[in-house]
Amino acid sequence: MNAWTLTLFLLAVMAAAYHLGRKRAISGAGGIDRIKTLHSLPLYHGLYAALWAGIPALLLLGLWSGFQDQIITALVTASLPPESLDGLSEGRVGLLINDIRNLATGNIVSSTLTPGIQAAADQYGRLQQISSWTKWLLVLTVALGGMGLALSHTEPGMRARNRVERIVKIIMIVFSSIAILTTLGILLSVLFESLRFFHAISPLEFFLGTSWSPQIALRADQVGASGEFGAVPLFTGTLLVSAIAMLVAVPIGLMAAIYLSEYASRGVRAFAKPVIEVLAGIPTVVYGFFAALTVAPLIRELGTSVGLEVASESALAAGLVMGVMIIPFVSSLSDDVINAVPQSMRDGSYALGATQSETIRRVIVPAALPGIVGGILLAVSRAIGETMIVVMAAGLAANLTANPLDSVTTVTVQIVTLLTGDQEFDSAKTLAAFALGLTLFMATLTLNVVALTIVRKYREQYD
Amino acid sequence: MNTMAEAIDKTTGAMSASELAGGIHSRATVGDFTVADPRMSCRDVDVWYGSKQAIKGVSLDIAQNEVLSMIGPSGCGKSTFLRCLNRMNDTIDGCRVTGSIRLDGQDIYDRSLDPVPLRARVGMVFQKPNPFPKSIYENVAYGPRIHGLTNNRTELDALVESSLRKAGLWEEVKDRLDQPGTGLSGGQQQRLCIARTIAVSPEVILMDEPCSALDPIATAIVEELIDELRANYSIAIVTHSMQQAARVSQRTAYFHLGDLIEVGETNDIFTNPRHKLTEDYITGRFG
Ligand SMILES: Nc1ncnc2c1ncn2[C@@H]1O[C@H](COP(=O)(O)OP(=O)(O)OP(=O)(O)O)[C@@H](O)[C@H]1O
Ligand SMILES: [Mg+2]
């Protein structure tokens, strides 16, 4: 008799309510031929009754399921003989309660059984039984009551459609607020943790310092763990890798888009476009080991063969592979905006005796430029947030360098390394991850807002 | 303009007795489709879109310094025929043109002929004004720039100004040449497109319903402009407005389902149509 069966029952009640509501509306109107006299179609009367039967009952069910454990636990704890709790720390009490719960549900128990615990477990089980029955009873009563209420004021003049639409609208608003509130919640938690970090380390050091070694000394006499939080090498590393990626992705993506939208025959287009988009579907971890195991050694070999010093994990390898990953972003966004340039622009240009390449260079690309730039900015924000490839192929050393053959590290890589493994959640080292995350988030947010504004402006131009 | 008497003279010359007898249902064009000194001359032009024939054996001449209007019900192939004259149909997949179309005696569908320079000689103005999203100046300078018509900025400035003057737009835009052409009113945009076309000094100008997106005042201005342009160019114009055809053109061609039904002096066509279909169309019985 779990919550799922109850939900099924509820759905059945809702279906019944729908039918009854419909029926009642039709008979209220005086038969199916006279439904024109209803304010709303019978469908809406049915939905109205179903919503009344379903929503309050579902809310009740949700609340009950959410709080039943807490209430029962509180009751059981209160009924425990006071001397059995004497001298126990809070954690101990928690363990005890856990034991009681496990005993009640027939799981393995950690401590030895005392009669007191056995009694408490019995009570726990009894309470649970009662709660479950009451829940069934209440929920079904509320459902049937809601249905009855709705049916009782179903009459031809009722504005059922407006009411149903209002309820549906409210449900939509609730769900979209969940999405918005979650984002806001994440943002706030990152913000507060970052503020804690900036209490320990000054923002000046973080944003301007050029040395990054986030090891905090565990003992006062420990060596080599001074903890330096100058994030500039991470920023430059991120920029270097992203710049290399964009150098690969922008020309290739743009050329591919122009070829596909202007030159390619329909057949080629139908084949090539999905193939390019497959690149976007490859998991980044696959790109990551491709970069680390294939591209990086290749670059190293090539480099050493011409006498260059190449790190085994280089910014170049990570950037090149990331660029390949981003090609479909640039190409499909550019393709969209190029296609959005109206055919009449092309006709106008051809009719003046312009060749196809002149038309593309002088009319189509300039006309599509704002959209293309928007697409590129979105790709940049994708690049600086990319993690897997750089974790695997760019390295961990926080070198402040502009040499693409060197190993660099990025903001995302450092967040990963700061947070993997066992962590103390209030050391500056861990909190630094939040500060980095916040910086990253701000950067991508700004890029996205700017990019979307540009793209939207551009869309309006041809609507 | 030719007198009515001359016109009748000329057309009857080309007509057979049976055609004159009325009740004509042949594909042969009624009226004289030739002119004495043609700028463009088309003979037996067929156009297919895939397997669908849109133009059936049309022969028609366009004279120097004349405005030829093409009328006919929607879908009869006016735009298709017009687009053949500067090979704009080349840009449509599956479109095939046969027959001969000559510009000053040269076959424009000849294999050795490049359609790109041809389109500079036979310009086109579209139904919907389509200025480039560039400044007014750049819109007009676009053609001269790609064809290298001027040697320096001064010459280009002069060419832009004279083109805008000929299109009757100069006074309205001379103080805002650097503003976007798309910011002009519809009528101004259409005149900008005409200026853009004139700037490459074409020999023939094709216009596909150039006034259909314009209000009566803007239309009157463009019509006046067309009349002035006739002094220097040959013009073929597609229109759905019989009044417009009567106002601006010297000769009129009536198309029906891909056939050229009747062609002749505009006055004749409108006062004395000889083919049943033409008569039905201009008296408003269909179309
Ligand atoms: N790109 C195309 N592909 C296939 N068929 C076409 C194409 N363009 C036109 N057609 C067909 O060719 C015929 C003639 O079309 P066209 O556009 O020349 O007519 P129109 O006389 O200009 O009509 P309207 O007065 O409505 O502009 C029509 O039947 C049309 O469906
Ligand atoms: Mg047309």
Automatic annotation (TrEMBL), chain A:
<dbReference type="GO" id="GO:0006817">
    <property type="term" value="P:phosphate ion transport"/>
</dbReference>
<feature type="transmembrane region" description="Helical">
    <location>
        <begin position="316"/>
        <end position="342"/>
    </location>
</feature>
<dbReference type="InterPro" id="IPR002229">
    <property type="entry name" value="RhesusRHD"/>
</dbReference>
<keyword id="KW-0472">Membrane</keyword>
<feature type="transmembrane region" description="Helical">
    <location>
        <begin position="41"/>
        <end position="64"/>
    </location>
</feature>
<dbReference type="GO" id="GO:0005315">
    <property type="term" value="F:phosphate transmembrane transporter activity"/>
</dbReference>
<dbReference type="InterPro" id="IPR035906">
    <property type="entry name" value="MetI-like_sf"/>
</dbReference>
<feature type="transmembrane region" description="Helical">
    <location>
        <begin position="239"/>
        <end position="263"/>
    </location>
</feature>
<keyword id="KW-1133">Transmembrane helix</keyword>
<feature type="transmembrane region" description="Helical">
    <location>
        <begin position="167"/>
        <end position="192"/>
    </location>
</feature>
<keyword id="KW-0997">Cell inner membrane</keyword>
<feature type="transmembrane region" description="Helical">
    <location>
        <begin position="431"/>
        <end position="455"/>
    </location>
</feature>
<dbReference type="GO" id="GO:0005886">
    <property type="term" value="C:plasma membrane"/>
</dbReference>
<dbReference type="Pfam" id="PF12501">
    <property type="entry name" value="DUF3708"/>
</dbReference>
<dbReference type="InterPro" id="IPR022182">
    <property type="entry name" value="PstC_N"/>
</dbReference>
<dbReference type="InterPro" id="IPR000515">
    <property type="entry name" value="MetI-like"/>
</dbReference>
<keyword id="KW-1003">Cell membrane</keyword>
<comment type="similarity">
    <text>Belongs to the binding-protein-dependent transport system permease family. CysTW subfamily.</text>
</comment>
<keyword id="KW-0592">Phosphate transport</keyword>
<feature type="domain" description="ABC transmembrane type-1">
    <location>
        <begin position="235"/>
        <end position="451"/>
    </location>
</feature>
<dbReference type="Pfam" id="PF00528">
    <property type="entry name" value="BPD_transp_1"/>
</dbReference>
<feature type="transmembrane region" description="Helical">
    <location>
        <begin position="363"/>
        <end position="384"/>
    </location>
</feature>
TrEMBL record, chain B:
<dbReference type="GO" id="GO:0016020">
    <property type="term" value="C:membrane"/>
</dbReference>
<keyword id="KW-0813">Transport</keyword>
<dbReference type="InterPro" id="IPR005670">
    <property type="entry name" value="PstB-like"/>
</dbReference>
<dbReference type="GO" id="GO:0005524">
    <property type="term" value="F:ATP binding"/>
</dbReference>
<dbReference type="InterPro" id="IPR017871">
    <property type="entry name" value="ABC_transporter-like_CS"/>
</dbReference>
<dbReference type="InterPro" id="IPR003593">
    <property type="entry name" value="AAA+_ATPase"/>
</dbReference>
<feature type="domain" description="ABC transporter">
    <location>
        <begin position="40"/>
        <end position="282"/>
    </location>
</feature>
<dbReference type="GO" id="GO:0016887">
    <property type="term" value="F:ATP hydrolysis activity"/>
</dbReference>
<dbReference type="InterPro" id="IPR003439">
    <property type="entry name" value="ABC_transporter-like_ATP-bd"/>
</dbReference>
<dbReference type="GO" id="GO:0005315">
    <property type="term" value="F:phosphate transmembrane transporter activity"/>
</dbReference>
<dbReference type="Pfam" id="PF00005">
    <property type="entry name" value="ABC_tran"/>
</dbReference>
<dbReference type="InterPro" id="IPR027417">
    <property type="entry name" value="P-loop_NTPase"/>
</dbReference>
<dbReference type="GO" id="GO:0035435">
    <property type="term" value="P:phosphate ion transmembrane transport"/>
</dbReference>
<keyword id="KW-0592">Phosphate transport</keyword>
<protein>
    <submittedName>
        <fullName>Phosphate transport ATP-binding protein PstB</fullName>
    </submittedName>
</protein>
<keyword id="KW-0547">Nucleotide-binding</keyword>
<keyword id="KW-0067">ATP-binding</keyword>
